[in-house]
Amino acid sequence: MRRALQAITSNLAASTGQLYRRRLPSVPRTDTLPERLLIHRYFFFSAERSPPITISTINPKVLSCDSAVHGEIVTRAKRLQQILLTKPSDLPFSEVIFCNVDDPQSLGQQPITFFREVLALCDHPELLDKGEVHGLFSLDSITRAKSIMKSIPGRTVGGYSDSKGIRSLRAAIAEGIGIRDGFSGNMEDIFLTDGASSGVHMMMRLMITSDRDGILCPIPHDPLYSASIALQGGALVPYYLNESTGWSLDVNELRLRLEAAFAAGIHVRALVVSNPGNPTGQVLADQNQREIIEFCRDEHLLLLADEVYQENIYTNKKYFTSFRKIARSMGYGEDDFNLVSFHSVSKGYYGECGMRGGYMEVTGLDSRVKQQLYKMASVNLCSNVTGQILMSLVMNPPRVGDGSYAHFTEERDNILSSLDQGSKMCVDAFKKMKGVTCNEVEGGLYLFPSIKLPNAALTAARSNGMEADTFYCRKLLDTTGIVTLPGSGFGQVPGTWHFRMTILPSQQKMAEILSRIADFHMKFMNEYRN
Ligand code: DCS
Questions:
Q1: What's the CATH architecture for 112-159?
Q2: Which residue's alpha carbon is at the smallest distance from atom 19 of ligand 1?
Q3: What are the Aminotransferase class I/classII large domain coordinates in residue numbering (predicted)?
Q4: How would you label 380-397 residue by residue, b for 16+ Cβ within 10 Å and e otherwise?
Q5: What confidence score (pLDDT) does residue 49 get?
Q6: Mind listing the pLDDT tens digit for each residue in 365-380?
Q7: Going by DSSP bridges, is the β-strand pair 267-274/450-451 parallel, antiparallel, or unpaired?
Q8: Is the CB of 148 under 6 A from ligand 1?
Q9: Ligand 1 mean position to 197 CA, how many Å?
Q10: What's the 393 CA to ligand 1 centre distance in angstroms?
Q11: Is the separation of the CB atoms in 406 and 494 below 8 Å?
Q12: pLDDT, position 155
C-alpha cells in the first residue's frame, strides 16, 4: 500500500498540472479493494486534482463535430429572448422569430386531428372502454387505435418493443410503402427509429471504420450528415449542387469527386442524396434519379436516400418519386440494389418533430450485414413506441370512405397550400432584394437565398472574426429578431454567401418577416456600399 502511494506521489510531482493526461499507476496486485479505493481517493483529493472529464480529455470527434442548427446565432437568439422577458426596451423588436429550423408545430402549425386522436387513445387505452369516447373521437380513430393496441404485445405503449419496431406497425408501413410506390414493401426491411436522425447515425456507425472511409455528401447539405460523419471519424467527400440550374445534381460532378477522393486514398462507401433537398428545396427528376442509381451500381456505393420531405412538394412540374420505386421500375429486385431510404414523422404536413418517429428501409444489403444492424438497434433496445405508431399512421392515413377522411384531407391540404404560398411569397420577396438571388422552392421546408455581399461587409465580418454570412445573419437577428442560419454551416461554393430560412411561418407572419428582412437588407447594403 505504502509503495503504491509513493509511486503516485512521485508521479504527481512530475506531472505539474498534467494529471488529467496521466493514468493512475497500476496498483500492486496484493492490495485489497479498500486499499485501492483509498489510493483513488488520495489521487482525486490531491491539490492538483482536475475534473474526471475536461474539454481536453473528451472524444476529439465530438469537438470536431459542428452543428450549424445550434450554433452561435441560435445561442444568441435565445439570449435575446431572455432579454425580451426582462428588459424589452433594450431591444429594437418585441419578438424573436425562429425561422432557422423546420419545426412546424413550434411555429404554430396545428397537429393533424386523426393522428393525435389515435395516439391519445393508444396512450390511454382505458378510454376505449368508455362510452363517452364515441362523442369525442371519430369512429375510425377508435377502430384504428383498437386494432393497433390489439397488435402490440402487452397492449401498452409503455413496454419495450422488438428492436426493429413493433411487427404489426412495420407491416403497416411496408403496406403504405407498397401503396405509395406500386411495388410491395417487406416489413423485414423496415427499422423503426427515433426520427430519421437515429437511422442516419446508425448507418454511419455501421460503415465508417476510419478517416479513410468517405461518404459523398451534397454541398449544401443538412448538417446532420456532416455531424454524423464527424462523430464517427469518417471523411465527408463533398459534391456540389449547381445553384445556377436550380440546385441540380450532376452525375459527372459525382464522378469527379469520387475520383478525387480515390486519388486521395479515401474509400467512398456511400452517397447521400436529399430529395427534396434541405436546405436547397429542389426535387429530383426521375431521369436524374435513374442516373444516380446507375452511378451507385457502377461504383459499388450504398445509396442513402433521405426522403423526409416526400410530402412537401410545391411545383406542378415535378413530383416526388422514391428512389426505391425508380430502382424497382428499372428492373432491380429487392436484393439487387443497395439502398437505405429514410423517412420521418417530423416533416410533411404532419410536422411532429417532438414525437421522434421515423424509419429506414434497408434493401439489397447482405443479410449478415442486416443482422448486424439489427444487433446495433438492439443496443438501443427500441425506438419510442408512440413515435412508431405515428410513423405507421403517416404511412397509412385515412383513406376514401373513412369517417375522418374529409376532415383529414382538409387539414392536410390547408397546411400544404399555406406552405406552398409561403414559399412563393419568400422567393418573390428575395428576388426583389438587391444582390439577392433565390431559386424556386420545389419542395422541402427551406429556401437558401444567395447574397452578394459588398466588400466593405466582408471586411467588417473579417474584423469581427466572423464568416461574412454569419455577420449578415447576426446583424439581421440583432436588428429584427429574425433567426436565420448562415450558409457557411451547410457548405457552399467558396466565395458565395447564403442564409437558410424556413417557409413555415403563417402567411400573415411571413409577410411581416419578409418586410422586416427587406428593410434590414436595404439598410445593410447601404451601410456597406463599396
Ligand atoms: N433529414 C433531413 C433532410 C432533415 O432536414 C432532418 C432534420 C432530418 C433528416 C432528421 O430529422 P428527424 O430526426 O426529426 O427525423 N432537419 C434538421 C434541420 O435541418 N434543422 O432542424 C432539424
A1: Orthogonal Bundle (1.10)
A2: 222
A3: 152-517
A4: eebbbbbbbbbbbbbbeb
A5: 67
A6: 999 999 999 999 999 9
A7: unpaired
A8: no
A9: 7
A10: 20
A11: no
A12: 87
Question: Is residue 101 lining ligand 1, measured as CB closer than 6 Å?
Answer: yes
252 CB neighbour count, 10 Å cutoff: 9
The rounded Å distance from CA 49 to ligand 1 centre is 41
User: Helix, strand, or coil here: 77?
Assistant: helix
pLDDT of 130 above 90: no
State the pLDDT at residue 391. Answer: 98
Residue 197 CB less than 6 A away from ligand 1: yes
Tell me how many degrees the CA angle 228-362-208 measures, rounded to the nearest 5. Answer: 35
Question: What percentage of residues in the chain have a pLDDT greater than 90?
Answer: 79
* Residue 308 Cβ < 6 Å to ligand 1: yes
Task: State yes or no: pLDDT of 435 exceeds 70.
Answer: yes
| Architecture, CATH, for domain 66-108+409-527 | Alpha-Beta Complex (3.90)
Q: Is 192 a pocket residue for ligand 1 (Cβ < 6 Å)?
A: no
Residue closest by Cα to atom 21 of ligand 1: 101
Contact (CB, 8 A) for 228 and 255: no
Q: How many CA atoms lie within 13 A of 524 on its CB side?
A: 31
Q: Cα(224) to centroid of ligand 1, in Å? A: 7
Intervals of CATH 3.90.1150.10 along the chain: 66-108+409-527
- Kindly state if the Cβ of 195 falls inside 6 Å of ligand 1: yes
Residue ranges, comma separated, of all CATH 1.10.287.1970 domains in the chain are 112-159
CA distances from 112 to 141, 271, 318, 361, 411 (A): 12, 34, 26, 25, 7
Nearest CA owner, ligand 1 atom 20: 101
Check pLDDT > 80 for residue 466: yes
Whether the CB-CB separation of 222 and 230 falls below 8 Å is answered with no
Is the beta carbon of 97 within 6 A of some atom in ligand 1? Answer: no
Contact 143, 406 (CB under 8 A): no
* Eight-class DSSP state of 248: B
Query: What CATH number does the domain located at 163-395 have?
Result: 3.40.640.10
